[in-house]
Design goal:
By secondary structure, the protein is α/β, with parallel strands linked by helices. It has 4 domains: 6-188, Rossmann fold, CATH 3.40.50; 197-441, N-(1-d-carboxylethyl)-l-norvaline Dehydrogenase, domain 2; 471-597 and 644-688, Alpha-Beta Complex (2-enoyl-CoA Hydratase, Chain A, domain 1); 600-642 and 690-782, no CATH class. The protein is 43% helix and 15% strand. The protein is built from 29 helices and 25 strands. The strands form 6 sheets. Strands 3-2-1-4-5-6-7-8 form an 8-stranded mixed β-sheet, sandwiched between helices. Helix 7 packs across helix 13 and helix 26 (699-714) runs antiparallel to helix 27. The radius of gyration is 28 Å and the shape is globular. Residues 195-294 form the 3-hydroxyacyl-CoA dehydrogenase C-terminal domain. GO terms for molecular function: (3S)-3-hydroxyacyl-CoA dehydrogenase (NAD+) activity; NAD+ binding.
């Protein structure tokens, strides 16, 4: 297998630097080169050096940890071109201009590339075959497009396009490397303008503009419809254009209009004059002085405005409400959400239908022009534009026959293919199949090496235990997976029951357990609504029993007779974090944002989270024969400041992950990697026992913390209630009102945190915090 350990990135603009950062995230050595600017003086690599410095300040962060910048060396094309010979892969990321790229290949790359190195271009739509013309015949088999989406760290999509002479085996090996090492979702595109995602995405935006004008809706009204209600991101249509840069959108549309002379919908790509005027006036979006949306301070209040294309002026946002959108947003399942939206009878529903209708018809007509199959198209839109459902998945959701009938009612012709198929996907015998448009037969959807699909395993009858909130799924080889599937994967009584049942079943029939799910987030934590109801009703005994059950479930995980490995991803809040902390090991997806955030709703981590942070600090101090105070303070701050990791790598620094835990950059390998870890741990597994020999940090450390809290309150940095809550957390994490060194047990710490939790629940301000979070989705400072 080809080894890639060092990569040269040619071009240190925003995209080139961000690609270099993600390569560094993956542990690769990177050489970042750019031009020598005029009047550079002695600092001839200043362009690349400034780009590297900017990475450390980028928002959102391009690097998992700031210290990963050390993996990146800087240089310039003139003095350091020969160093390209050291690299296994060279990525060109200069300006999107065919002649500029060709010149760089001829002058810098070809004379210096080693005979086995790969060469790729990061073009977003230029012809790979046109670029290959300037390369020697011996290099073309190692040349291809690797189109990263921006920002590279966060966007999963990688569009790959071979040139006519790219070696198929080399291309396949590179795809595997990009999936496995960089965590990319790879799609295979054709050498056509804008490839797949930008071709469809740009069309969808242009179609939305056309129907906005036809229906007389405003920019703000359109974005209210084309976001989450349509199973797309919150940025919807025009806020997305603001984010990307309206000038960039114009350039892509102009390029499409120029090149797509054979496209039957070419006119739709013609840039509206009002949009061109915006760019001329500097209204390019977030990076300019305004865009389709902007904020201004009015009477001391930050106020949102939106652009009116008919007048060229801004209007104050009014938060439009459509019954169809409101109904759709109440639905969790994206398929049912889209159906709910387009079945409405208001202007919002009409716009949604018209936009979807035209986009889906256009997409069907582009097969096999832009890709060989529907899977690549759907993956491109889900991974590149963050659509929850791809175009062909949407056709199945609406129903192909129903779609054809409704389009016919509108007087719109559909491609003949839609009259021939009932659906584009189906599941049989635990396999997901797709309809091959080119071969007119059903084929299995390709799966990446190491990919485990819980949904397919469940369809094949691998569920061994199940209730409304969680399931136990047989992964094979004696490993079971505990899967949460409640709303936002919150943890309630049914989840706790399944944890206990899952542990017992795995101890009986298996060798290890993985805790993972395929939701959009791992877990939002304990079910706040149930806590709020119990508090409002004064059901203190019930609440006490619930917290006790939570603690018992966590201890069941920690002291199971088989190894338990948690495989978190995305948001892992409160109780979700506690679940992971009690596992023997964690194998997290690289983009994991985890924290004990209970103080934000006026509570203390009481599912063993505070206990676990105290226990870990005490054990670390013992191992290093050191004072416990710095270890306790670090873990205390995680809780009192509701710290959330910025990446899985950050979890190591926070102490929420430990040496031996793992990180998977590839989201679809996360469960597989956790399974392997569980199997490895099972070989010589020794179950733990609840600790009975802990030396309490003691009241003196709690007093020191409380002095600092008093100073923070006096300085106006925290509220009086923040101080009250943080003081209570200090009392628990230090072992209670006892002298330092007093011997305590793990059970004692659990009792302390449960008692403090109930005490906090009895406070009016805590109930206010809980209710605010439930209503607004963000913490209240009271």
């Amino acid at each position: 297998m080809r080894q890639i350990n060092k990569v040269a990135v040619l071009g240190a603009g925003v995209m080139g630097a961000a690609i270099a950062a993600h390569l560094a995230n993956a542990g690769l050595e990177v050489l970042l080169l750019d031009l020598v600017p005029d009047q550079a003086g002695t600092n001839r690599s200043v362009v690349a050096q400034r780009a590297l410095a900017a990475l450390l300040e980028s928002k959102p962060a391009a690097l998992y940890l700031p210290e990963y910048a050390r993996y990146i060396e800087t240089g310039n094309f003139e003095d350091d071109a020969q160093r390209i010979k050291e690299c296994d892969w060279v990525i060109e990321v200069v300006v999107e201009n065919l002649e500029v790229k060709k010149r760089l290949f001829q002058d810098v790359v070809v004379p210096n590339l080693s005979e086995n190195a790969l060469l790729s271009t990061n073009t977003s739509g230029l012809s790979v075959n046109a670029l290959a013309q300037v390369l020697p015949a011996s290099l073309r088999p190692r040349f291809m497009v690797t189109h990263f989406f921006n920002p590279p760290r966060y966007m999963r999509l990688m569009e790959m396009v071979p040139c006519a002479e790219t070696d198929p085996e080399t291309f396949k090996e590179m795809a595997g490397f990009l999936r496995r090492r960089l965590g990319k979702g790879v799609v295979f595109a054709k050498d056509t303008p804008n490839f797949i995602a930008n071709r469809i995405g740009t069309y969808a935006g242009a179609a939305t503009w056309r129907h906005m004008e036809e229906t007389g809706l405003t920019i703000e009204e359109v974005d209210a419809v084309t976001g989450q209600a349509m199973a797309r991101p919150k940025t919807a249509t025009f806020a997305l254009w603001d984010l990307v840069g309206i000038d960039t959108v114009v350039r892509v549309m102009d390029n499409s209009y120029k090149i797509l002379d054979g496209d039957d919908e070419r006119e739709l790509f013609r840039v509206p004059e009002s949009v061109r005027r915006m760019v001329a006036d500097g209204l390019t979006g977030r990076k300019g002085k305004g865009g389709f949306f902007k904020r201004e301070t009015v009477d001391g209040v930050s106020t949102k405005f939106f652009y009116d294309p008919t007048t060229g002026a801004y209007r104050q946002a009014a938060s439009p409400k459509f019954p169809s959108v409101g109904a759709a947003k109440q639905v969790d399942d994206p398929a049912a959400r889209v159906r709910t939206l387009i079945q409405g009878d208001d202007k919002g529903a009409r716009l949604a239908w018209l936009t979807l209708r035209d986009t889906l018809i256009y997409t069907v007509k582009r097969i096999p022009e832009i890709a060989d199959d529907v899977v690549n198209v759907d993956n491109a839109m889900r991974w590149g534009y963050n659509w929850e459902l791809g175009p062909f998945e949407l056709l199945d959701v609406i129903g192909v026959a129903a779609f054809v009938a409704r389009a016919g009612y509108d007087g719109v012709a559909v491609p003949q293919l839609l009259n021939e198929v009932e659906s584009f996907y189906r599941t049989e015998d635990g396999k997901r199949l797709f309809y091959s448009v080119t071969e007119r037969e059903w084929r299995e959807v390709p799966r990446s090496e190491g990919e485990i699909s819980l949904s397919l395993l469940k369809s094949a009858g691998n569920v061994v235990e199940k209730n409304s909130a969680a399931s136990l799924v047989d992964l094979g080889d004696g490993v079971f997976c505990l899967e949460f599937h409640s709303k936002m994967n919150t943890i309630g009584n049914d989840t706790l029951s399944m944890i206990q049942k899952g542990v017992r079943r795995t101890e009986q029939d298996g060798i290890g357990m993985v805790i993972a799910n395929e939701g959009s987030l791992f877990s939002a934590g304990a079910n706040l609504m149930l806590i709020a109801m119990a508090v409002a009703e004064g059901a203190w005994d019930d609440l006490n029993l619930t917290v006790r059950a939570f603690q018992r479930a966590m201890m069941a995980i920690k002291y199971a007779k088989v190894p338990v490995v948690a495989a978190p991803h995305a948001l892992v809040m409160g109780g979700g974090c506690e679940t992971c902390l009690h596992a023997d090991a964690i194998n997290a997806h690289a983009e994991t944002y985890m924290g004990l955030v209970e103080i934000g709703v006026g509570l203390i981590p009481a599912g063993g989270g505070t206990k676990e942070m105290a226990l870990r600090a005490i054990r670390l101090a013992e191992e290093q024969d050191a004072d416990v105070m710095p270890f306790i303070l670090k873990n205390y701050r995680n809780i009192a400041m509701a710290k959330v990791s910025t990446s899985a790598a950050d979890l190591m620094r926070m102490g929420l992950m430990r040496p031996g835990d793992g990180i998977s950059l590839a989201l679809d390998r996360r469960i597989h990697d956790a399974k392997l870890k569980a199997i490895a741990l099972s070989a010589n597994y020794r179950p733990g026992r609840p600790a009975t020999d802990l030396k309490a940090p003691g009241r003196s450390i709690a007093a020191s913390i409380k002095t600092q809290l008093w100073n923070l309150e006096e300085g106006g940095f925290i509220s009086a209630y923040d101080r009250y809550l943080a003081s209570g957390i200090a009392d628990v994490i230090t072992g209670g009102d006892v002298p330092a060194g007093t011997m305590i047990t793990e059970e004692h710490l659990l009792d302390l945190e449960r008692e403090m939790f109930l005490k906090f629940c009895g406070q009016k301000k805590t109930l206010e915090r809980i209710q605010h979070m439930l209503k607004k989705g963000r913490p209240l400072r009271n």
